[in-house]
Here is the input.
Amino acid sequence: MGTYVKLYIGTSILANRLAFLLDEAGIATIIKNHDESARLAGFGTFQNSSELLVKDDNLQEAYKITENFKKEILK
Here is the structure.
């Protein structure tokens, strides 16, 4: 069983889109949405506070998908 590694930090919209792409490739993800957690607790955070994590076993393939995703959103 691998440990989870932080792959991406950004807005929740982009983190969810990337998680969808990784899920299509069969890579499980965890999203830590610090904005939502802070809202529920009653205080604020900085923007771009969502973290996307993947198991280190899948890191190489996930990194390739992430690089393609970054190219796509920068067009």
